Amino acid sequence: MFVIGGGGREHALVWHLRRHHPAARIVCAPGNPGIARVATCVAAALDDLDGLAGAVASVAPDLVLIGPEAPLVAGLADRLRARGFRVLGPDAAAAAIEGSKAFAKALMARWGIPTAAARTFDALPPALAYIRAQDRPLVVKADGLAAGKGVAVCDDVAEAVRAARAMLGEGVFGDAGRRIVVEERLEGSEASVFALVDGEAVCLLPAAQDHKRLADGDRGPNTGGMGAAAPVALDAALRERVLREIVRPVAAALVAEGRPYRGVLFAGLMLTARGPMVLEFNCRLGDPEAQAILPLLGAGLPDLADALARGAAPTAAPSSGAAVGVVLAAPGYPAAPRTGAPIDGVEAAEGRGLVFHGGTAVRDGRLVTAGGRVLTVVGLDAHVADARRTAYAAASAIRFEGMHYRTDIGARLAVEPARR
């Protein structure tokens, strides 16, 4: 098996594959120091599709699993399938559901999939006129890929105006922000719902709760994700409603529009008083949600995907227990993370929980920071409250200069009843 990517999600994915397929040969490009302990890593840049395709061809794996969104949106799965490889990940046409928020909004509007009311703009003056005419809280989103940071959840009109100016006027997200989506701000509790999809066949994976903001209490700027907890307990009625109103319809819509989806589909939902509504779709496993979900699966993703492709109806309920993943971030993250600091205590932390590498490197024989989200420390236990204690006990063993993390990951799930 061949895994594309080099972050915490991919480390969790390789760990998951090794757990369920202990004898398999697993290769990862580009990988990271944590992945290198359990798989073979080969050098390849994630924006070099030819290089990635060549690396896969040199190994000739029976399955390729693509972790990050950028190579999926750029068409890596298309290239690999054209060469005859089995791939867990959507083609570029289907990956547009994440690659363009405007496309996703239009798709949902055409097919009646519940989501926030929205307008799309590619020029600043009409965007500002629309924002100033609203009397409700808004969310301003960069249309393209912005590493999870291109969303401004605004408390008032002035904040939404600043966000629109930054994206359309100042180009803070480059090409990704040349078009923006302005939508109503939904109220409720969030859930990250994941499903394996093969055409119109779907299999729900455990739901998770992500924590996007930098600081405790959901304060500070949006990040790629500061931690996640799973499973989110969706009662039977809500689970069926999510399948009936969101997951199955979007899979069918993509098939009907000539974009059949094959891979993991991520629906970011707001559970509102009106019912579940889509905040966004992603074309892959989330990071850090994967680090919390994958340890709970009682079956391997390749086995579930094979069963789905055969027309079976696999179930992917959590095997047991709960998981809480805490991201340890570098100083300056998310705006300008500082790297190169030595990391100590990883082995001690691994004696208490799981440690997945995200932004690490080895220099002169020392493990050092090499990205904004350096490590994800995961606690596993019977209940979320106990998993939180395990995760934070493990995190306390790790040290690097400027390390910071949220102290409230999973706190809401530890006290919330099943979602209805």
Protein described:
- This protein has helices spanning 8-20, 49-59, 69-74, 76-82, 92-99, 101-111, 124-132, 157-169, 236-256, 289-293, 301-309, 346-350, 384-395, 411-415; strands spanning 2-5, 27-30, 40-41, 64-66, 87-88, 118-121, 138-142, 151-153, 180-184, 189-198, 201-204, 209-210, 213-215, 219-222, 227-230, 262-272, 275-282, 322-329, 354-357, 360-363, 366-369, 373-381.
- With 420 residues, the chain is of the alpha+beta class.
- It has four domains: 2-96, Rossmann fold (3-Layer(aba) Sandwich), CATH 3.40.50; 117-184, Dna Ligase, domain 1 (2-Layer Sandwich); 189-309, ATP-grasp fold, B domain (D-amino Acid Aminotransferase, Chain A, domain 1, 2-Layer Sandwich); 322-415, Phosphoribosylglycinamide synthetase, C-terminal domain (Glycinamide Ribonucleotide Synthetase, Chain A, domain 4).
- It has a five-stranded parallel beta sheet with strand order 3-2-1-4-5, sandwiched between helices.
- Helix 1 links the parallel strand 1 and strand 2.
- Helix 5 (92-99) crosses helix 6 and helix 7 packs antiparallel against helix 8.
- The radius of gyration is 20 Å and the shape is globular.
- It starts with a strand and ends in a 5-residue tail after the last helix.
- The model has no long low-confidence stretch (mean pLDDT 94).
Q: What does this entry show, briefly?
A:
With 420 residues, the chain is α+β, with helices and mostly antiparallel strands. The protein has 14 helices and 22 strands.
